[in-house]
Amino acid sequence: MRAVLGLGALSLRMGRGRLLLRHVQDGLRSSVGASRWGMAVAALLILGSVAAFAQFGVFGRGGGRGVRFAPAEWPDRNFTVCRIMYTSVRSEPNGGGWRTDYPGGETNLMIRLSELTKTSISVDGGKRPNVWVVRMTDPALFDCPYTVASDVGTIGITPPEAEQLRTYLLKGGFLWVDDFWGTPAWEQWSREFSKVLPPAEYPIEDIPLGDPIYHALFEVKKAPQITNIQFWRAVGGRETSERGSDSRDVHFRTIRDKSHRMMVVMTHNSDVADSWEREGEDAGFFYQYSPDGYAFGINVLLYAMSH
Fold first, then answer.
1. Number of domains in the chain
2. Does any domain span residue 150?
3. In what order do the strands lie in the sheet with 251-256?
4. Residue of 101, 96, 244 lying closest to 183 (CA atoms)
5. Are 137 and 106 a contacting pair, CB within 8 Å?
6. pTM here?
7. Please, which pLDDT band fits residue 49 given cuts at 50, 70 and 90?
8. I need a surface site. Which of 32, 101, 161, 189 has the fewest CB within 10 A?
């Protein structure tokens, strides 16, 4: 296994990238209470930040590009991530609908995957990871090995969307939904998604701590509760529940097919993707959240792609 070489999410110029690296290294040295595992993962993540700039270039937040829909002919068959586009029928505080954490979260997770493993990822001519947007009714959905959606507490799903997404999932597709907080968001998501996979036949279940998904590569003890960076700044990093008592506990849940394969995973009351998207914006945010966020994210990705 290769060491992680990239701090590819760094949405900063090279000089600020080196400054962040120094700050995080200082944090590693001064964090007496940090676990050996957390320090080891953090060290891996910062080990080769400059090398990632050389390999993948400099990305602004969101990668500096507009929406990129999945093409009719894909440039290659290397690994990629597809973002589900949907229509929001309600709003959530600080939510951005389907665009939430797009495309920075997926972009940075793909970079980390390519640096941590020998997985070849799909990149464009500028060596930027290809992150595609698909509608639930797009034929290109069936070319997507791995799909994600955020802020799904605002989602509305039409009958044609439900039918095609159901077919995709039952044929072997995978979906991770993230960054929706509190009871109203959960009720909206679960009600709409019941159109896709009726709970009487495909129930939503909590993922127990002994499940192999927690050990796919890293030894992860629990699903992390991660806030968005604006909330983190507002509370000085002292609070992790964005909806107070209504989002105190993280729920890591799944829907399985008849062969017990995970088709859908859900991180409710956590914004895991922000630990990837915003890793380069603040050394304190990086050190508090990114090691756990990447360990968890890589585990989910590898487990999904190998089962």
1. 1
2. yes
3. 131-135, 81-85, 147-150, 175-180, 262-268, 251-256, 204-206
4. 244
5. no
6. 0.84
7. very low
8. 32
